[in-house]
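Q: Protein A?
A:
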Amino acid sequence: MYKFLITKTAKKVYFLLLTLFILDMFITYLQSSAVTSSNKATHIAPSGLTIATIPVAIVPASVPTQKTLRVLTWAGGEIIFPRRGHPQDIELDYLQQFADEKKLKIENIRVTKFADLIPMLLAGEGDVIAANLTKTGQREKLISFSDPFLLTKEYLLMGSQSKSLQSGKDLNGREIVIQKGKSYESTAFGLQKIYPNLKIRLVDSRISHEALYDKLASGEYDITIQDKNLIQSASAYRDDIKMSLQASATRQLAWGVAPNNKQLLNELNQFLKEQNLIAKVKPKSAHRYKTQWQKIQETKTIRFVLRNNLSSYYIWRGELLGFHYELAKRFAKEHKLRYEIIVAPNNVALLDYLLEDKADIALGFLTPTAQRRNKGIAFSRPYHYASELIVAHKDRAEIRDATELANSNIYIRPSSSYWESAVELKKTVSGINLVGVPESQETEAIIDKVGGKEYEMTIADSHIVDIEMTFRDDIQSLMALGAPKSQSWAVASGHDKLLAKSNAFIKKHYKGLFYNVIYNKYFKNQKRLDTHYKDYVLQNDSGVLSPYDDIVKKYARQHDFDWRLLVSQMHQESRFNPKAKSMAGAKGLFQLMPRTAKELGILDVHVPERGIKAGVLYMNWVRERMRKDEVQADQLIWFTLASYNAGAGHVRDAMRLAKQQGWRDDVWFGHVENAMLLLSKSKYAAKARYGYVRGQEPVNYIREIKRRFETYDNIVKKI
């Protein structure tokens, strides 16, 4: 009886399973055969995001449609034996988690050629690219990118037996192999611009990472470029490749989505955010603002941008002078910094240089305005106040109020704060015509044109007008526009620490002894102003830098030097005094030792012509010696000056030390000059071939010559 019951039950189960199997086959048949339309329908996930556009069968309502996330992956990015932490596996794991949350099915579409990934996405053959894809400007023009889930850097990669690279210069004569379509292409061609003898070979993008590694290991390929995360993954199981020099800045890896699939992009970004997977990228501007003062301290150099005029920065008989120049020098000295003076080519550039990070502080009696703040400029506390005056020719009839300015032409630079004041004036006085003048014209030059009746009127600060009226009697001030306005130092917005340092300096010195002495020196000493003004005008009109310009030009042409640089050097050596003699016995305008001059065939260097000839001949001889050391072409002149001042032996010691310290041995500023300073310390001098040198002297010597030369370059043409 028991046995019978078991047999009967088994039969029931058998017939039940058979019925279910037949029913399943029938449903499958209906699904495969009932496609009667070629229409396509868009499948929508529960959240509403677009996932896939695929043919839809006409099926019974009880059979649900399948929602699919189609992921385009690069077949060449896979490895034969998957390992924990492989970059492509990580991406797919993330997307699988995303799909599970959205109740989606993942369909991995393996693409043979990397270069086909984006075209397939745009053609609707996939929904998202997951292939260790680097976010680049070129790709952003074609597709949308999710928030980055990883930050990496590109490195040069080679076989373990390949000749190592000590520096970028070693790339000359080598070959980089890149798969077509990879972001590494732009990196490689960027390197080629720097190292023109670097060869680049583009190979088929079907070549996988593993095949690439094999060819590097065998020596068939020389070098390639890879993301650091890929190299680290491969290095975990391969010892026949090695990572070399860094080839790029930080790169962002992200998923690629079609531009019109915004809902999917938003959902992916929301997923990354909720899972705390977004790689934190600091905006360049925020990073720059936060670290500006730190960067200044690290380089021990602060950059001031000024205009070349009598109130800010000018040359008088070879000396660098100016109210703002002296403020800049004092600021640098108090903070134990070197300083660089950058001469802005026009008044717009004065502030633009801050925004472009070409300078740290702008000085120039700058009036804070809303327009300038909106541009991204921050201003210090006031360090000067000035009234804005209407300036006209002396023959213009005096006025009782502003209404008498009706129908006048006022000439002003559009970028100046005067323009904004004139716009306000125009609201209350009818018929005023504002005429924009070139941004390169200084206020003093505009006033000069008013004095010559070329311009009818202008607006200028009271202290500038006071100086001008000291020298000339062809202009007058008709009236002041409102109360005196404050004037400040300027920095790029966000440089809060730098701004605080500026404010502290101004608070300490404004109206104090130092401030009052230099203010009176440049704006109140009439005798001094008169002398400097005449020389300044002569220099700008004639291009004369020294009493010996013609002699210097002659020998500069013979030996291919910039004559203005030689004049700058001559000033540094002798202050243009042909009878100058140092304690060491150096003589003449270029301060040569008598024995050196004699070897050059010149006896009496006190005679200007002979002294200059000897100096240029010696500079040329030194330059040819330094040329053999293969320094960069644009750096040769600085190494030549260093050798002229300290001797070639000490310079070569500094070059060797720079290389040992991990600095460049073919760049002077910030590299070899730093090593030169170290040679003043016994720790380093003891190991130097030529021993101790007072490194600060050649460092200062070159910086002073460079600073003066850049000023000459701004005001006087080379020829």
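Q: Protein B?
A:
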Amino acid sequence: MEAASAAPGPVRTSGSTATVNGPAATADSTVTGDAAGAGSAVATAPAAGSAASDGGRRPARRLTRRDLLVFGAFLLGAIWVTSSIWMDPQGRVASLYKSDPAQVQFFLAHSVRVVLHGEFPFYTDFLNYPDGVNLMANTSILALGIPMVPVTLLFGPAVSFVVLVTLGLAGTASAWYYMLSRHIVSTPAAAIVGGWLCGFSPAMLSHASWHPNIISQFLLPFIVWRVLVLTRSRRPIRDGLILAALVVYQMFINEEILLFTAMACGIFLLAVLAQRPGAWSAAWRPLGIGVATCAVVAGALLAYPLYIQFAGPMAYHGLSDAVRDYGNDLMGFFNPGSPTIGGSRRSNVELAPNYSEENAFFGWGLLLVAVGAVLWMRRDLIVRALAFTGVFYAVLSLGEVVSYWGRDLFPGPWELLVRLPLLNAVVPTRFGMITSVVIAIVVALAVDRAARLRQPDRSTVRAVTAFALVVALLPIAPMPLRMVSRPDVPDFITSGAWQEYVAADQALVPIPVPSMGHTDGMRWAASTNLGFRIPGGYFLAPRNANSGDPGRFGGRRSGFGAMLDEVAATGRSVTYDDRERRRGLDELRHWNAAILVLPVDQGNAEPLRLAVEQFAGPAQRVQDVWIWDVRALTSRQG
């Protein structure tokens, strides 16, 4: 999105004095002190530190050949990162934490049902049958899944997953490059460096194996710019409507990142106003009108989905204790991320909650460059505001307890905020992703300033800048994501043979029963575009299936599933007593199970088969699975 006629022209800055060209101020006026003259300090905030190479003319809005080349380079970089998945999308998965990709593939298949069958988009009972899952409370990525429906139909959800990861990385880098090159910096190299750091930061790489919704941040730069445009907009209602459209769409990609972005915009503007309070007199009216317009329109469009999320079936309040205290270790800021050239899983093992949440890990080089850039440009009001925003988010990302090399030191500021509404549903370590973006913008501003210096310092500063970039970026350069093989979806499922047994109101029960640690059954269902329902699964739900309770991973606990989990983990044969068998049969009746399905090549398949036979009788071999037709058993009463 462009700033349209309301946007001021590029800004020349020198220390604390800025010369503004454009409609927001009289031509060639000087803004100093308390931002005299139409409050342009807030208005021109994003462009601080830049100078137009064309003598003050508005940057070109059309895509140029250079832009297309940069976009192509970012796409090649994303393909390099995901190359190990592209080799076999169906048979490769991240080497750790295989549950998240299976969940995303299930949600992609749900989008197919929404489009082709008119399925209710915000809740489903095809997972965790019969209780179901509140999809609004589970980042069901409708804004990504629905556009991907043709790909999912043609090639399957596993291919859609890797397409989304690839486009998420490349699209985020490209979007930030576009916004930086049009509104913040005047040199292409600065915009490229900033876009690359936003799209391929260690935090983005750490999520790429598991969370395409988190790395799909291509709308964020336009949301940020629209908020800043509102501070001096001549058409705040129109600009508020544009912001509302962006907010609504981002809402269905990832709510958590949207909340972080909204908070960051507010913190940044407050940091600017704290330094130049006079800017508020001109900014408050258009900003207030625009934000109010956005709130009314977005609120009206999102009212029903949010009602489902917070008060609908299977709604929960607050995150599971398992993730609520996730925080960054202090040392994690100085180590390179695991998916980078300089990264090491072994040295990072105690510095992050897990490998999918390495949300800092900038490395010594990038941190020193960022700090050096802030000191170099310290007279720039906007750089100071950015620095404050980045530090603020870095502190929040430490979590409830500040730690160093895995040792708890003292309570963190997050302890004071974790129980507040909305904040009680976020993962604090992910605040570090906003710090990544701030660092990227600061580095871009520094590269831009170095490129624009005049003789006699120009050559020396350029050489120092180039050397600093190599030192900063080389250790965190991305490597292909680590993948391992995973079991194929059984032929019994892909051939449609299951349809002979399972009616629309019945469940197919994969063995082991789907749970956080056993998500292959979710991939089976996704491969059929949710042709059948399954019990259990991996998702967030209220404890004991009581809507409004605190959240936990998975539905109500399954005794039958827990018994089989133990067999799957240990491979030991067990004998169940009558009470345990009755309990297992009761759960099968609760699920209205039609058949139980155990792949022949499942780990510990033989002890699992013997265990299930104690509940459901002898197994039948069909193609590449063992099945138990339990329709007669589950139709019995008592």
